[in-house]
């Protein structure tokens, strides 16, 4: 049988040949549509729907009545055939298949709308050799001024620096690739790394783009974030400073990152956590490459709804025309070779209460307005310095993503990454050595930390590690 259609001679002697017209069909209608015949045709039709694609084509050579009937069935069976096969391997719905292009279109519309929001009109555009596009945007048009509390305002003047601060930071003339090529943004503008469509497509969603994921792993009680840090707590802190060794650690996949930074923290470690963060990071998901990049971050609700990296939302106000937040840092350190570090200072302006960021020897990058925060409107209750990675490996396995240089702390200078000259700002706006600096590693067999103190480096520590290794499987 195999789905073949068989012509039979009617009982009244009237033959129904291959190319008979419809009047002949009507003469044999009684026999052809008897209950037995209809049941037989239903069975054959069901077999045909699930049968061979090429056997369905035979229908076109049958009488016109059957042509019409089976042409309809052919169109139906063609779609049923493909969906039946795919349903054996996945739960597939033709309705969902129809909606998928519409969903993709809506997603692209949302992405383009977001790009128009964060990519501001520029007075100059710079194409960097590392693939970045730097837009020179008028200061009062940067994303921060989309915030209702800042709309219509202009960046504030520089505040009073902490006492004990000096400008002897070790910094080359330019530390970002786009500047090394001789390009600059005009005064009155700020350099902003342009966000591209593919940057947002790498994120889980438009709303997740530019944000740290609070919870990452579902197969463990860990949220996937691992740290090796030095920290101070138990007092009121109004800022922090450190020189951070810059490396280019290997990251296992685009869903992980490796960073080294300063955290200014207040509130509990629940949903009211306030943080201000700055340092360098390697994040393939955010930037699409493995360059170490200068970054900032903030949140006032433990990385839930508020805050973002860099200038990807309204928040941080940039005041400098020569530093692009999110741009690549160059050079980076090499194993047993040249070492490079960046010096960062974050402190609370005693007059207006805003938190300012300084890079190197006196370069004011910008500030976080005090109204962005709840607890940090007053002071910080903890300061952390150190490294963080995301481990996305499931089922107890560990990532091979490196922290710092990718080598353990005990290997020391030129091999392990470091923080040096670790300081805090006290209640009277004095910059002082961090008192009672303690160190902690979440997973010391994967990433560890060792602290110390001397005259040249003040309070310091070495930290980092390779991630997955025989002691960290």
UniProtKB/TrEMBL annotation:
Residues 146-171 are annotated as: Disordered. It comes from the Eukaryota. Residues 219-473 form the Neprosin PEP catalytic domain. It holds the Pfam family Neprosin_AP. The chain crosses the membrane at residues 53-76. Keywords: Membrane, Transmembrane, Transmembrane helix. This is Neprosin PEP catalytic domain-containing protein. It comes from Eruca vesicaria subsp. sativa.
């Amino acid at each position: 049988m195999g789905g073949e259609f068989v012509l039979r001679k009617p009982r009244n002697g009237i033959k129904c040949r291959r190319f008979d017209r419809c009047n002949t069909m009507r003469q044999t209608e009684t026999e052809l549509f008897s209950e037995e015949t209809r049941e037989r045709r239903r069975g054959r039709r069901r077999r045909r729907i699930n049968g061979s694609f090429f056997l369905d084509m035979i229908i076109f050579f049958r009488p016109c009545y059957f042509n019409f009937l089976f042409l309809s069935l052919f169109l139906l069976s063609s779609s049923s055939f493909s969906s039946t096969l795919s349903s054996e391997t996945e739960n597939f719905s033709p309705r969902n298949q129809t909606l998928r292009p519409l969903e993709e279109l809506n997603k692209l519309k949302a992405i383009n709308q977001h790009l128009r929001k964060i990519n501001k009109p520029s007075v100059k555009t710079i194409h960097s050799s590392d693939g970045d596009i730097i837009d020179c945007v008028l200061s009062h048009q940067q994303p921060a001024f989309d915030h209702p509390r800042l709309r219509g305002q202009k960046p504030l003047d520089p505040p009073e620096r902490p006492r004990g601060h000096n400008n002897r930071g070790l910094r080359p003339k330019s530390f970002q690739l786009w500047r090394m090529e001789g390009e600059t943004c005009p005064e009155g503008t700020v350099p902003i790394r342009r966000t591209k469509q593919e940057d947002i497509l790498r994120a889980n969603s438009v709303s997740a783009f530019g944000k740290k994921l609070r919870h990452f792993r579902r197969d463990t009680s860990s949220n996937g974030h691992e740290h090796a840090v030095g920290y101070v707590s138990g007092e009121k802190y109004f800022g922090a400073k450190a020189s951070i060794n810059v490396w280019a650690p290997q990251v296992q996949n685009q869903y992980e990152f490796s960073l080294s930074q300063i955290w200014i923290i207040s509130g509990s470690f629940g949903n009211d956590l306030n943080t201000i963060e700055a340092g360098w990071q390697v994040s393939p998901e955010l930037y699409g490459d493995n360059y170490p990049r200068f970054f900032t971050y903030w949140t006032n609700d433990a990385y839930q709804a508020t805050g973002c990296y860099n200038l990807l939302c309204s928040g941080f106000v940039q005041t400098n025309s020569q530093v692009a937040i999110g741009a690549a840092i160059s050079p980076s350190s090499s194993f047993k070779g040249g070492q490079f570090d960046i010096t960062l200072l974050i402190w609370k302006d005693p007059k207006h209460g805003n938190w300012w960021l300084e890079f190197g020897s006196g370069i004011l990058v910008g500030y976080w307005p005090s109204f962005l925060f709840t607890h940090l409107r007053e002071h910080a209750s903890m300061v952390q310095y150190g490294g963080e990675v995301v481990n996305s490996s499931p089922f107890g396995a560990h990532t091979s993503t490196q922290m710092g240089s990718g080598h353990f702390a005990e290997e020391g200078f030129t091999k392990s990454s470091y923080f040096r000259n670790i300081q805090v700002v006290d209640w009277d706006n004095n910059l002082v050595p961090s008192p009672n600096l303690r160190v902690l590693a979440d997973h010391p067999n994967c990433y560890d930390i060792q602290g110390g103190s001397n005259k040249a480096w003040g309070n310091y520590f070495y930290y980092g590690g390779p991630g997955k290794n025989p002691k960290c499987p």
